[in-house]
Amino acid sequence: MARDYVLFTASAWPDVDFHISSQRVSVSVAEPVTARARRRLEIISKLKRNWDSYGANPTSREALKRTDALLRRLEEHPHIGTLSSEAAPFAVAPTPAGGIQLEWRLRGAVLELEIDANGRAGLLWDRPTEAERFNEEEGVSDVGILRALENFLGW
Amino acid sequence: MRKKASPMLGFSGLSRTSSGGKRRQEVILDTDDLYRRLPYIAVNDDSSVNSVAYKENSKPANEVSVDLARLLSSPLESLIRAWRPAFGVGRLSAGSARSSSIGFTVTHDPEPWNDAHSLMKGKNTKVVCRLLAERTQLIVPPRKSLPWHYAVIFGAKASLSILFRTADRIPRALSGR
Fold first, then answer.
1. Mean residue pLDDT across chain A
2. Residue B106 region, left (φ>0) first, then alpha (ψ -120 to 50), else beta?
3. Are B39 and A96 inside 8 Å of each other by CB?
4. For a designed S-S bond to B136, which of A70, A108, B49, B157 qualifies (C-beta 3.0 to 4.6 A apart)?
């Protein structure tokens, strides 16, 4: 009977798994959790004026730059390798004003991050089961965003 | 009450009633459905509508354009009038937009080439956008790519729609003189 064993996951390379079975030995490299978000950013960066048919602006360079920097910080986060699927943004979408919105979801709650056309970030927590469902914070730094995300994901 | 548009060709033709040169303003009831065009990038992977679908570019602020479903023969007509074959359509009831948590007013605001055009007006915030998106049902999913045969059919329907609406306008323009 063929059985698979994970030989080891090197802590220095959390995205790399070494597998051995009775037939073969394989090494698999997982995509970083931000890979999908980066693919969406690529699409968003190519949107032209009026992409929503209601007169939207194309996404600004500042918004793209800040989102890219934030994703890099997320990739470098010490816990990223162990909580991959939850750390990946559920949605990445452009805003009609030239910004970018990222959204994380966990157990019915939502953390929405909007980076506006000037690169300014704002957070919105949506916790439908709580008495005070919505909470907003404007002008958040990258450190503040990561802290909010850690808090949201329970890191 | 305005006559229902012919559903046969998927566009509104000569069946519209008219009163002089300008379209009559309809009263929008809470039970009326509103259509919002949705690019695929504003629809999440689980087919829920992203709140960016209701965000604006501040020109003008606090106004969200929608189409009054009752004046369209089908949701696809909303796409035909805007020449957006790959877009999806989301449906929202006027009553939802007027609910206390959102607090929008909904009025019919006919445009020269889209007499179903309506406006939701009020204080549009991030929270309001989330609530609107949450209450919007995706009824026509958007397409990432457009098959050529679909593009041809869509182009033909859109051209006929323009032709019929132009023909509809001529007698009204003449009687308005």
1. 84
2. beta
3. no
4. B49
Determine whether the interchain pair B57/A57 forms a contact, defined as Cβ–Cβ distance below 8 Å: yes
Strands of A11-120, DSSP E: 16-20, 25-29, 91-94, 100-106, 109-115
Residue in chain B nearest A95 by alpha carbon: B52
Residue of chain B with shortest Cα separation from A122: B126
Going by C-alpha positions, the residue among B91, B93, B81, B90 that lies closest to residue B117 is B81
Contacts of A35 (CB under 8 A, 6+ apart): none
pLDDT in tens, B152-172: 888 888 888 778 777 777 776
Amino acid identity, residue B99? S
Residue A122 near residue A128, CB atoms below 8 Å: no
Which amino acid belongs to residue B136? Answer: T
Disruptive mutation site among A53, A105, A125, A127 for chain B (greatest number of B CBs within 10 Å):
A53
Q: Percent of chain B scored above 90 by pLDDT?
A: 55
Give dist(CA A58, CA A49) in Å, integer.
Answer: 5
Which of B55, B82, B87 lies at the smallest CB-CB distance from A97? B55
B68: Cα within 13 Å, side-chain hemisphere: 26
β-bridge mates for residue B37, sequence order: B89
Q: Where are the beta strands (DSSP E) in chain B?
A: 33-38, 63-68, 88-93, 105-108, 117-121, 137-140
**Tokens read off for A98:** 């030239």
Structure tokens at B86: 């790959």
Confidence of residue B177 (pLDDT cuts 50, 70, 90): low
- CB under 8 Å to A88, separation ≥6 — which residues? A33, A34, A36, A37
Q: What is the complex's ipTM, to 2 decimals? A: 0.79
Residue B175 distance to chain A (closest CA, Å): 32
pLDDT of residue B173: 72
Q: Please check whether residue A41 is in contact with residue A35, taking contact to mean a CB–CB distance below 8 angstroms.
A: no
Residues B86/B40, Cβ–Cβ less than 8 Å:
yes
